Structure formats: C-alpha cells, structure tokens
C-alpha cells in the first residue's frame, strides 16, 4: 500500500506530462505502515496469493460465458417482448459483471502479477463500450488519489445536476434531487459510451485535471474498442431486427447497466457515514494522512453477502479496495477483519451499511439532506 500506487501502469512520462492537481496529505504514516504490515502477515499466514487467484480466472470464464449466452439469445432467439426484456436485463447485468469483476481488477493492475494479463483484462472495458484509457485516469488515478475531496475528485463533480457534497453550491431545484436524480443515474452508461469517452479523446480533461490524450497504441485500442462495441451492440442486431427494436433494447440494457454502476459507487461515498474533507486553508494540504483519509471517505456495505460480493467484484468491501487497490478483490472479505481491527486500534471509525438496500436508503437521505442546503458553504457571488 502506497499513496501513489494507483499510478502503476501509467508511464512516468505520462504522469509528469499530466496536469493533475497537486495535493499533499498528512505526514504521519504510522497507521499506513502498521496496516501494511498486518495485511502482509495475513497473506504470509494464510498462504493466499495477492494476484493470479484461481477463483478470479474461473470467475472471468463464467462471466464472459454468461455475457455471450445472454447476447446470443437476445439477438438470435428472443421471439417476444418479455423474452427480450429479460435477456436485455441479463445482458446488462453480465456487462456490469465484466466491469466490476474483470476490468476493474485489470485496470488497477490487481488481476495478475503479469502486466500483459492486466492489460488484457482491462481492455474488456473497451469491449463493453467504455475506454480503459479514460477509466485509468478518471478512476484509478484521480478518484483514488482525491476520493471525496470537493474540487479534486471528478467522480463527485455532478453539479449543477445535483449537490452531493456539503462544499458544493446549492441551487433551489436541488430541494427535489432525492426524487428526480434516479432516472439520470440510468443514463450514465449511455453517456459514457456515446459521449464522455470521445470528449476525453478530444480534450483530455477531467474537471481541473488535464491528462495526456490517447495516442499511438492507446488510441488504436480506443478506436478498435469502439468499433467492436458498435458492431455487436448495433451493427449485428440491425442485420436481423428493425432499427427501433435494436435501439429499444439497447436503451433498456443501458439503463440497467448505468443504474448498477452508479449505485455501487454512491453507496460507499455519497452518504452521511463518509467524510468530505477539504484541504486546510493555511497550508493547502490535507490534514489527515493518505491512508487515514481513505479509511474515512469509504463505507463498506453488505459485508458477508457472498452472492453480492461475487456479483460486484468485492466492491462492497470498498474500504479494503481503496486502501489496497493493487490486491485482487477475491481477497477483500478475508482482509476486512484485519483492516477493521487496525482501524479500531488507531481510533479510526470503521463505518458500514448492514445491507445493499440500507446503503441505498442512506444515499437517499444524503441527497435529501444536501438538497435542503444543510452544511452549505458560504458561496461568493
């Protein structure tokens, strides 16, 4: 575990050339070093592997097989609306599984100790319509470095649509954001596949963070991935079905996919149990050390729910993921006890939601609270 570990897999030249915002964290590394020691001891005692877990390879095969079967049945075998809807939902959930289970570990370089395996699994995001290059900068670097820091973490920069941080300005219509926001969550997948990825290629900008635009081999992967996605998502189906039918089932699948993606992210971060710290005004740096910050801005949910853990790639153990993003998610449930005990020994709250629905309810309450203007900062006009 290291403060800059999320930049692994990005060349040092690219990091130097990027316009990432600079932000220092507190210097006390006692918690981070002790947690690292205990986790290393856990792997030594159990004999488990941090990467290249056989369970992960089996899971990958099952997920890809389910994706292929649901797609083939939807395109070639569905004969009525209800069959189509069920298969479209199944395809969306399988697509989400590729993102949560395969791509996420590969993109974090947590899937394998071999770089080519990580790259291959990370490229599955391009297969399902995203961009592995854009994701690496936006999520693995920017979000993991600046989690829940307003003005730095691009993943919480959803204004003016909604106010999700007490340090963001409030508009009058935010009073109803806990009601109107949910349909917009479903649009995330379409926004990513059809707009945001292309905007990244053109601008290389995530808020105030500027990153190198894709070139060379990375640009080839982007173009090839988009071509492959548009072929299987639109081209092949349109050879067999009317255009409106293809678009209808794409929208259904995309809405389910987008909703799943958003919920798995907002439950650990955009709730009252997660902190939203700001840099100190006098120093411009964060008061807390990096590892303590990560522990306080993430909330686990539904720990012990093995089915959910399997389906969403261990992201319900979100604290473990943010502290150890380079370790395969197969290990998160076993590591959670070590992380919780270490947090307790250092007086750091270990916050959780008891279930997935409880996490959704907590996010609803947080949206309502932020929409009312609670904890609103003084905004200079």
Folded structure, characterized:
Helices cover 60% and strands 2% of the residues. α3 packs antiparallel against α4 (81-107). It has one domain. It is mostly helical. The longest helix has 27 residues, at 81-107. It has helices at residues 12-17, 30-46, 54-76, 81-107, 115-122, 124-127, 132-146, 177-186, 188-203, 216-240, 243-269, 290-296, 306-311, 318-323, 332-345, 356-371; strands spanning 205-206, 209-210, 300-301, 352-353.
List the helices and strands and how they pair.
Layout: H1 12-17, H2 30-46, H3 54-76, H4 81-107, H5 115-122, H6 124-127, H7 132-146, H8 177-186, H9 188-203, E1 205-206, E2 209-210, H10 216-240, H11 243-269, H12 290-296, E3 300-301, H13 306-311, H14 318-323, H15 332-345, E4 352-353, H16 356-371
Parallel strand pairs: 3-4
Antiparallel strand pairs: 1-2
Helix pairs in contact: 2-15, 3-4, 4-5, 4-11, 8-11, 10-11, 11-16
Please report the number of helical segments.
16
Average pLDDT rating: 92
Total E-strand runs: 4
Low-confidence stretches: 11-17, 376-381
Give a short summary of the structure.
60% of the residues lie in helices and 2% in strands. The chain is mostly helical. It is globular and about 60 Å long.
